[in-house]
């Protein structure tokens, strides 16, 4: 099996699985008073500190959630509540993950106004676009760090500078699910107030994420009321096993981060060069992130390519996995012609990806092209 869909989810390294297995047997409730419970609590806090260290922030800023989607929802709702006296205008981009876009759509039904910034043909948005859209009543700017379909990196630090210069009261949130441990991603350097993370994009388990909340956001609105876990902001008994897996995955990636990123970037460059040498394959967008490459086999419907290669044990995506075969909103926003749009393929890489696997992908794509006629 050749797995080239690391932006959808990642394989679990053996040490992560082992850490989770151990945590599973250490079953005590972290809220319990006896030593076994206190030990569980200590471990949750040590693991929180691992995530905080990777973000170069204080542990108190890291709040565990059940996934990136939950973090995105919480960030938006919390920001609107925080700035409820400022207004009802939100700025985001047309190419965010559906966790952001669907939340914004629902908010429009409740009277919020949302500006969706359109990317250029390469998939990028600029801080100048944010500045032009900014209003007195803007309460939140939510812009992702790395786009999951194009790999474009968005200029969060520049956007933060614009908000500061314009003395805006809007909070700045970034969905860093695809950016964490792939590109520079520290809240202080990016100047963001809120940042969403998800473990399963970096070798951790599904079902665990985190929301960074800046220390100045005192009294941020709790997501879940109850027993007061997660510093009173997200009640519910901690997901100790998932937290163990998340922290171990972060530790593992951080051990060899520079080497892993260099390797992914080299694999991506190699893959790009090989695939573009096939007549009829064109690049899509100008994504700089080391793990995502978007191309189009023009005129060949991507769903057919994905099915054909899948049957040969090669896993790739026809755009975001969240869109299940439909032409994605990101592809639509790029304004590609119909034939190019229909053939968009997303390859995404991890530290485990090999050059030999790219050679096999190349042969399979060439074969697909030569054994079929274009449909469009
Ligand atoms: N944001 C981005 C950019 C993503 O790529 C994803 C997952 O594909 C999510 C959010 C959602 O994360 P989760 O699957 O943890 O809910």
Walk me through this protein's architecture.
This protein has 2 domains: 2-10 and 256-371, Aspartate Aminotransferase, domain 1 (Alpha-Beta Complex); 14-254, Aspartate Aminotransferase, domain 2 (3-Layer(aba) Sandwich). The protein has helices at 14-25, 35-55, 68-82, 98-109, 127-133, 156-165, 187-190, 240-255, 257-276, 302-311, 329-333, 338-342, 355-371, and strands at 2-3, 62-65, 89-93, 113-117, 138-142, 171-175, 194-198, 209-213, 281-283, 292-297, 314-315, 344-348. Helices cover 41% and strands 14% of the residues. Helix 2 runs parallel beside helix 8 (240-255), helix 5 packs parallel to helix 6 and helix 9 runs parallel beside helix 13. The chain starts with a strand and ends in a 5-residue tail after the last helix. The chain is α/β, with parallel strands linked by helices. It binds pyridoxal-5'-phosphate (PLP). Pyridoxal-5'-phosphate (PLP) binds next to helix 3.
Count of discrete alpha- or pi-helical segments spanning 4 or more residues: 13
- Roughly what is the average pLDDT, rounded to an integer? 96
And the CATH topology of the largest domain?
Aspartate Aminotransferase, domain 2
* Ligands bound, unique: pyridoxal-5'-phosphate
- Under CATH, the homologous superfamily of the largest domain reads Type I PLP-dependent aspartate aminotransferase-like (Major domain)
Strand coverage percent: 5-15%
Task: Indicate the percent of residues in helices.
Answer: 40-55%
Rg value: 21 Å
Distance between the amino and carboxyl termini: 30 Å
Total number of beta strands: 12
Low-pLDDT parts are none
Secondary-structure element pattern, one letter each: EHHEHEHEHEHEHEEHHEEHEHHEH
Number of domains: 2
């Amino acid at each position: 099996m050749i797995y080239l869909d690391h932006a959808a989810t990642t394989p679990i390294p053996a040490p992560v699985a082992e850490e989770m297995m151990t945590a599973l047997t250490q079953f005590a409730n972290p809220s319990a008073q006896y030593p076994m419970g206190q030990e569980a609590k200590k471990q949750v806090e040590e693991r929180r500190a691992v995530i905080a260290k990777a973000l170069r922030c204080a542990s108190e800023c890291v709040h565990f959630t059940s996934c990136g989607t939950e973090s995105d929802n919480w960030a938006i709702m919390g920001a609107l509540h925080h700035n409820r006296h400022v207004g009802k205008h939100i700025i985001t981009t047309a190419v965010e993950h559906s966790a952001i876009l669907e939340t914004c759509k629902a908010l429009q039904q409740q009277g919020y106004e949302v500006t969706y910034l359109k990317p250029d043909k390469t998939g990028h948005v600029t801080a100048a676009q944010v500045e032009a859209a900014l209003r007195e009543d803007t309460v939140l700017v939510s812009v992702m760090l790395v786009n999951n379909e194009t790999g474009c990196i968005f200029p969060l630090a520049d956007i933060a500078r614009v908000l500061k210069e314009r003395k805006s009261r809007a909070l700045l949130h970034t969905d860093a699910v695809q950016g964490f441990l792939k590109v520079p991603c520290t809240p202080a350097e990016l100047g963001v107030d809120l940042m969403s993370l998800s473990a399963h994009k970096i070798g951790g388990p599904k079902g665990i994420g985190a929301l960074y909340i800046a220390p100045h956001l005192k009294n941020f609105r709790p997501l879940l009321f109850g027993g007061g876990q997660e510093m009173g902001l997200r009640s519910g008994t901690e997901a100790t096993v998932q937290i163990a897996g998340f922290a171990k995955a972060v530790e593992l990636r951080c051990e060899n981060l520079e080497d892993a990123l260099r390797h992914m970037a080299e694999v991506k460059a190699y893959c790009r060069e090989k695939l573009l040498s096939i007549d009829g394959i064109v690049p899509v967008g100008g994504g700089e992130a080391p793990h995502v490459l978007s191309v189009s086999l023009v005129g060949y419907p991507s769903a057919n390519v994905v099915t054909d290669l899948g049957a040969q044990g090669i896993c790739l995506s026809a755009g975001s996995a969240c869109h299940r075969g439909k032409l994605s909103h990101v592809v639509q926003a790029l304004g590609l012609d119909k034939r190019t749009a229909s053939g968009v393929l997303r390859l995404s890489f991890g530290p485990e990806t090999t050059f030999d696997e790219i050679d096999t992908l190349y042969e399979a794509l060439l074969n697909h092209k030569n054994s079929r006629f274009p449909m469009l």
